Amino acid sequence: MPDPALAVDGLRVSFRVPGGEVQVVRGVSFSVEAGRTLVIVGESGSGKSVTARSILRLHGRAAALAGEVRLGGTELLGLDERRMNELRGARVALIPQDATGALDPLRRVGAQLSEVLRHHGRAGSRAAAREQAVALLRRVHIADPEQVAASYPHQLSGGMRQRIAIAIAISCGPQVLIADEPTTALDVTVQAQILDLLTELQERLGMALVMVTHDVGVAEQMADDVAVMYAGRFVELGPVDAVLGTPAHPYTSALLEAQPRPDVPRGALRPIPGVPPLPTSRAAGCSFAARCRHRDAVCDDVEPDLERTGAAILVACHRPLAVRRTA
Amino acid sequence: MSAVLEARALRKTFSNGVRAVDGVDLDIAAGETLGLVGESGCGKSTTGRIVLRLTDPDSGDLRFEGLDLLSTRGRALRRLRARLQVVPQDPRTSLNPRLTAGEAVAFNLRAHGWRQPRRGERVRELFARVGLAPGHLASYPHELSGGQAQRVAIARALATEPRLVVCDEAVSALDKSVQAEVLNLLTGIQAQAGVSYLFISHDLAVVEHVAERVAVMYLGRVVETGPAAEVMAHPLHPYTQALFGSLPGRGRGRAHAQGEPPSPRNPPSGCHFRTRCPGAVPRCAEAAPPLVEVQPGHRAACVHHPAMTPPTPNGGTP
User: Fold this and answer.
1) Of A1, A196, B46, B165, whose CA is between 20 and 30 Å from A223?
2) pTM of the predicted model as reported, rounded to 2 decimal places
């Protein structure tokens, strides 16, 4: 079997803080094949963005990374910075949440696109780069690409800027695209257009897509596979229909039940009691135990591993829901 | 049902030329939640600020419990504000970082003439009501989680027993698991105290859950209004259809709007949505279609609706 486009194995990420280290990602493993989409869903502080950004090693020296990240056959965590710079943007690229912050406010859009192309040797001359930049803008369905290429970011709308960030990300034909909350800052009608664009580009270019979101609806629409993240670990991983349709982990189930829906009477939403543990004060046992309705004595003592339960779902729980239902 | 708030033809153009609110009518009954939805720049927050008398409209009429709100000023307005409160979006920036949670709530009470020891008792009572432990009375905002801070903001808003609370994106900054808690709290308080909410939000799922009636805004105008369930199930205006069709996830419609909203400085003539509307015809550019009642209480502003068919040039309508 060929290597998957991206394989992450036992990824751990720690940040240095005054008086020690805090582990924010605590052993995350997954793989994504070409043309497939993995969506990582989680709430604030779950470690989903850190996971995604660590694949590109964007935290620099601030973070200590352990484990393995393999891009095709290349292991990334051991590469020197120069070699990593060659891969970043070329074979694996990022679509950031905030395109406004990611673009240089003082340079025209076309120049910023050309820079990436020339840095990775995808365009010989300046003129060729300029032409390619315009073609890329057209590919992300910008109606008047010449004019947009000559514009500064502040002259464009939020949706347009996100399209440009996507154009930059796909400019060198990466095998893997990392999208960190790519539509969170956008209005819902524009979000729909951007999600459609991502789906279309992926179908055409066959990239593997790893997308991070807090929005279950976005996950449902985009994912082949969903990973649910809580307190620095995946608690559930599997095909989207299984994970969001018949969740096995109590956290996934609770998260879905907390979503406001029209069929739930007013006042009858089911919040998740309590708050996630801080990375600085994690107790032994399952991180979700303190908030879990199905908690058992064993949950306080032993942290469960991500294990196969149903046909395709991996779940980290001593008392997974689906198993109990069939038992 | 008596109206708590009646707004008629509110208009506000800012000095930079942005026509934020362009002829908005709103009615909110006692104990009712009106959801005001729309995308960024549609004027929903400005409308909320006008209702709160934080922004003066250029023209229009605003009645709060039958009182002319726009001509009320000075001490009378301050007194009236006890009954008209706000829960803002981000509790961590709306709470004074140098006041404890207890002091923040007491501050509002003091402004409305509550004296000790009654004031302190009232603060403790409010904390219990919003589900905050007495231990949090002495907490500073930075020591609170987002959900706790929002409870403090709600306790502060409820302190003076308001009749109307403007919730401006009040749960948008919260994670869903916490958001559910705060939504339950808001609806529970309403059931108990009969307060009305003007619930401003960009999040359709939240509004669908919390509001009895909704008003959908686009570029300064209400394009559709009606019972929440009815508007969500049978949206009449193409913008409303596009808005709900854009909700991510399966099982929703997929009618997307084209392009992005034009600048509110220079909105298109006639129907503001026509430049993105799949069904636009030349007539749409001529005049802004008025809100027309299609079903009882369900109004939409679109030339395409049968009820909107104009009289024939010769002879008029039968």
Assistant:
1) A1
2) 0.90
